[in-house]
Amino acid sequence: MNRRDDAPHDDGGAPRSPHPEASESTNAGARLGGVRTALAVVSVLLFFEAAIVSALVVWLVVDLVSLEPSSYVTAIALIALVVIGAIWVWAVAIASLRRDPWARAAAIVWQILQLSVAVGAFQGLFARADVGWALLVPAVTVIGLLLWTPVRVAYSRPEDRPDAA
């Protein structure tokens, strides 16, 4: 009568699996799937951001050619800075696919820069809340995912991982 399966459970009454290692491997599999999803979301958002910055470069060049700027030097300098930014974000996105350790820090720096632009988009004479939210949501998402411990470990060097012996 008083078998192990009949014993009260301290986990809210849910029956325990007769094979605890099976439930642990299921939890580990679910966790691994969540980490893979998080890594995929980070990479997709970084590639999306790189594409948007590249589109911004094209837009600025078209504006330079079709409109007369008040200062050509300033317009060309702005285009040069945005080109450098686009190259950097593409490099970070590609490195993110390879899980290079430097990519995590570079991605966080990019997201912080994006956060600062988002804050500026919410205020001022030409405030654009839609642009602010479009910049804020992906930045907070990527920062949150990159600070999550399993994702942080995925970006670490193999010899620095806790499971390395």
From TrEMBL:
Span list, region Disordered: 1-27
Sorted UniProt keywords: Membrane, Transmembrane, Transmembrane helix
Transmembrane domains' residue ranges: 38-60, 72-93, 105-126, 132-151
Biased composition (Basic and acidic residues): 1-22
Name of the molecule in the record: Histidine kinase
Taxonomy of the source species: Bacteria, Bacillati, Actinomycetota, Actinomycetes, Micrococcales
